[in-house]
């Protein structure tokens, strides 16, 4: 089979489309014929060799953690899933023609493979950091870098829980944020004052790693009310850096519920082929994403 791999840490140029042995499902796992794989910032952070406790690897390594596809092999102990089912979930090396998923769920009705591939780790991350930052119904959550996949999920999940949201993003994404139920403003000079004019901030999330941790602490008044998934220096200011995943099966179940109730929709901004994985990483790293980027297999 074909898969995207890298033999050394570095820039997107280290990614290669190679021939590899097919993986097989172990106990509690399913193998899928991949139809689409989600592109996540963690993918290029791992490729660069950044230290992430949740994703230790050995070289050469594959790429990707999210996928959607058709089950073609079922491991021992799996119940409720059959060969031929359309599923989405998480597993290693998903930029490939076949992948093994250790957390999975049937895709909601009406969802395409390219849409489904964008949800698993994004929803898990959104649920985790909303919980870690401790924001409650009736309070206001500020989301810095809100237009990407995680931001899109955070805004919609928070609104479903009765939490007001303020989102920062580029000028081109202001209407997009408002469409997700957020008060929106641009980043850049004067952004702190613009946020203050929108109201009180009870908690804040840094999703972009754009060097705004100090300002988020200023706006909330307490570093314990700020969580980052993008700034490795956040702990220097007393802010939690969140990089250890919670329960992916629980997140998938909640994603299915939210999608089925029409409370969660993350658009796919752009798709790529396996051979275009490097371009997908370049675009992802550049930011300014609206929704998700997905590799089609």
From TrEMBL:
Domain Enoyl reductase (ER) positions: 10-295
Molecular functions per Gene Ontology:
oxidoreductase activity; RNA binding; zinc ion binding
CDD domains tied to this protein = MDR_like_2 (cd05289)
- Gene3D superfamilies the UniProt entry points to: Medium-chain alcohol dehydrogenases, catalytic domain, NAD(P)-binding Rossmann-like Domain
The places in or outside the cell where this protein is found are:
Cytoplasm
- Please verify whether the record's keywords include Hydrolase: no
Using the UniProt record, give the first listed, main subcellular location: cytoplasm
Q: What keywords sit in the KW lines?
A: Cytoplasm, NADP, RNA-binding
Keyword Nucleus attributed: no
The protein's matches in SUPFAM superfamilies, at most eight in alphabetical order, are given as: GroES-like, NAD(P)-binding Rossmann-fold domains
Q: Name one GO cellular component term.
A: cytoplasm
Query: Which PROSITE patterns does this one have?
Result: QOR_ZETA_CRYSTAL
Which Pfam families does the UniProt record give? Answer: ADH_N (PF08240), ADH_zinc_N_2 (PF13602)
PANTHER family registered for this protein in UniProt: QUINONE OXIDOREDUCTASE (PTHR44154:SF1)
Subunit description = Homotetramer.
Q: What is this protein called?
A: NADPH:quinone reductase
Q: Please report the organism this UniProt entry assigns to the protein.
A: Saccharopolyspora kobensis
Its organism's taxonomic lineage begins at:
Bacteria, Bacillati, Actinomycetota, Actinomycetes, Pseudonocardiales
């Amino acid at each position: 089979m074909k898969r995207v791999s890298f033999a050394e840490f570095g820039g997107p140029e280290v990614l290669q489309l190679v021939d590899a042995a097919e993986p097989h499902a172990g106990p509690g796992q399913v193998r899928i014929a991949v139809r689409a794989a989600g592109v996540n910032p963690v993918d290029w952070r791992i490729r660069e060799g950044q230290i992430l406790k949740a994703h230790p690897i050995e070289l050469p390594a594959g790429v990707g953690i999210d996928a959607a596809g058709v089950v073609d092999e079922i491991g021992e102990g799996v119940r409720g899933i059959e060969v031929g089912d359309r599923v989405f979930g998480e597993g290693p090396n998903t930029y490939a023609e076949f992948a093994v998923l250790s957390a999975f769920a049937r895709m909601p009705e009406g969802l395409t493979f390219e849409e489904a591939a964008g949800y698993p780790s994004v929803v898990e991350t959104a649920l985790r950091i909303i919980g870690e930052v401790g924001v409650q119904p009736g309070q206001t959550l500020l989301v810095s870098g809100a237009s990407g996949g995680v931001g899109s999920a955070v805004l919609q999940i928070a609104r479903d829980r009765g939490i007001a949201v303020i989102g920062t993003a580029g000028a081109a994404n202001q209407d997009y944020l408002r469409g997700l139920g957020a008060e929106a403003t641009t980043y850049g000079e004067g952004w702190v004052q613009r946020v203050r004019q929108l109201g009180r901030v009870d908690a804040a999330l840094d999703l972009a790693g754009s060097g705004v941790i100090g300002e988020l602490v200023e706006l909330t008044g307490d570093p314990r009310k700020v969580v980052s998934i993008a700034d490795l220096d956040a702990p220097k200011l007393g802010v939690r850096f969140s990089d250890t995943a919670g329960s992916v099966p629980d997140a998938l179940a909640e994603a299915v519920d939210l999608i089925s109730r029409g409370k969660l929709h993350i658009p796919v901004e752009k798709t790529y082929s396996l051979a275009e994985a490097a371009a997908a990483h370049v675009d992802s790293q550049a930011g300014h994403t609206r929704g998700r980027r997905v590799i089609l297999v």
